């Protein structure tokens, strides 16, 4: 025979699980809406990892204006650093490192990138630096 407290515990677990699923569905729906908004603004948004040449986790659809696809970046086939003009790459790397070391949260920087067909385009990059603290 199952006690009432055991039955209630099972019911509470089911309710918690259901609420977690609802919260997850709501968060996914909000993420879809945010991506839709990002893809409609006249800027290209990158979310990249702080590794050599900045591998991308997310790229907005506006990357098409430079003749690239989002998949080229998110698959790892192409890194953000690969499209920075070779004469500007060292400066971009140094400036980003300096800003991170000095604790900046955001900054702007002007430099050149190469489109897929090799055209040079000047960018004014606005960057927001997010730090994730890793606990042990």
In total, the number of strands is 4
Low-confidence residue ranges = 132-136
**Spatial order of strands in the largest sheet:** 1-2
Overall residue-averaged pLDDT value = 82
Distance between the termini: 43 Å
Question: What structural class results from the helix and strand content?
Answer: alpha+beta
Largest sheet: 2 strands, antiparallel
* SSE succession: HEEHHHEE
Total of helices: 4
Shape annotation: elongated
User: What fraction of the residues are assigned to beta strands by DSSP?
Assistant: 15-25%
What is the radius of gyration computed over CA atoms, rounded to a whole number of angstroms?
22 Å
Considering DSSP H and I runs of 4 or more, what fraction of the residues is helical? 40-55%
């Amino acid at each position: 025979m199952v006690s009432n407290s055991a039955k209630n515990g099972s019911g509470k677990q089911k309710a918690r699980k259901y609420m977690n699923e609802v919260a997850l569905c709501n968060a996914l729906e909000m993420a879809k809406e945010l991506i839709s908004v990002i893809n409609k603004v006249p800027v290209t948004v990158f979310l990249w990892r702080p590794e050599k040449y900045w591998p991308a986790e997310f790229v907005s659809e506006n990357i098409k204006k430079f003749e690239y696809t989002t998949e080229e970046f998110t698959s790892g086939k192409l890194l953000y650093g690969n499209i920075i003009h070779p004469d500007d790459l060292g400066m971009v790397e140094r400036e980003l490192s300096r800003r991170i070391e000095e604790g900046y949260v955001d900054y702007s920087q002007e430099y050149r990138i190469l489109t897929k067909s090799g055209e040079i385009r000047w960018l004014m990059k606005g960057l927001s630096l997010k730090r994730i603290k890793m606990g042990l």
